[in-house]
Amino acid sequence: MKLSDENEIRSFLEREGFTFKKKLGQNFLVDGTVAPRMAAAAADENTGVIEIGPGAGVLTRELSYVAKRVVAIEIDEKLRPILEKTLGDRKNAEVIFADVLKTDLRAVINGRLSDCEKITVCANLPYYITSPVILKLLRENLPVKSITVMVQKEAADRICAAVGSRSAGAITAVINYYAEARPLFFVPKTAFLPEPKVDSEVITLNLRKEPPVKVADEEFFFKVVNACFMLRRKTAVNSVSSALSLDKETVKAALLKIGADENARGETFSMDVLAKLSEELRYGK
Ligand code: SAM
């Protein structure tokens, strides 16, 4: 069976009694060109790949042709009989039925993928948990080389924006701390069954060896980043003081001390300014 053929996959899923669950972000790929491109970008014969949300297995299968091993994590038990049929002959691919947000990924890497030289993540992400999944992957400091994921076009634009630019958000700076993000290719909504309301894009996050800025307290740095973006169109002084319950004079003094404009808006700050502001608010006198 051709997993990316819309009619074939539709009648196969119908025969299996499967119905799509919107709340699980179930939009399956039916454009045969997309999964091979994602797999080629994410893996080679030495790679162990973690896939999130295999669905009917279209990307999992492609990954299994290129990678050494694939472990896919799927929340929907209803897909078990389907995946047994579509992946049964792929001996280097296995599926764990679990919620990825509750899965110990380090244990997966150290166990099932322990014979792989390098580890990557590849997924057509369920969009309702795009940010939590990416942040989990980054913040757990897993030994992952890259993350190649399909996300909504709007999310891709935000994640790949330059920190300090108009399109950036707090997520841009947080991801930038861990990884270099770049867009790979556009995928129209017509590539999915059922068709979603919006287009998508495949992006790659290449994990950094070292963060681009040095901060002594990462948790506090992320609080400051979020605080800078909390009240958009307001000055950093207003946004940060309100988000962190600090008085305005303290924030103003910190900005002056680090040589930043006291009237600037937080979303215009570079990584360097964000880091200096965080250090000054945390450790300055
Ligand atoms: N990879 C398939 C494809 O490209 O056709 C399916 C992608 S679909 C956008 C997202 C998949 O993620 C669905 O199979 C859905 O059931 C699964 N999923 C949703 N929430 C999940 C979670 N918390 N943990 C693991 N899988 C999840």
Describe this structure in words.
The protein has 285 residues and is of the alpha/beta class. It has a seven-stranded mixed β-sheet, with helices on both faces. It has a two-stranded antiparallel ribbon with strand order 1-8. The chain is built from twelve helices and nine strands. It binds S-adenosylmethionine (SAM). Residues 24-29, 52-55, 58-59, 73-76, 99-101, 124, 126, 129 line the site of S-adenosylmethionine. Residues 24-29, 52-55, 58-59, 73-76, 99-101, 124, 126, 129 line the site of S-adenosylmethionine (SAM).
Q: How many structural domains can be distinguished in the coordinates?
A: 2
Question: CATH superfamily membership of the largest domain, which one?
Answer: Vaccinia Virus protein VP39
What is the strand arrangement across the widest sheet? 4-3-2-5-6-9-7
Overall average pLDDT: 96
Compact overview of the structure:
The protein has 285 residues and is of the alpha/beta class. The chain has helices at residues 6-15, 34-42, 58-66, 80-87, 105-110, 130-139, 153-160, 170-178, 218-230, 236-244, 248-257, 271-283, and strands at 28-29, 47-52, 69-74, 93-97, 118-124, 146-152, 179-187, 192-193, 200-207. It folds into two domains: 6-207, Vaccinia Virus protein VP39 (Rossmann fold); 218-283, Orthogonal Bundle (Helicase, Ruva Protein, domain 3).
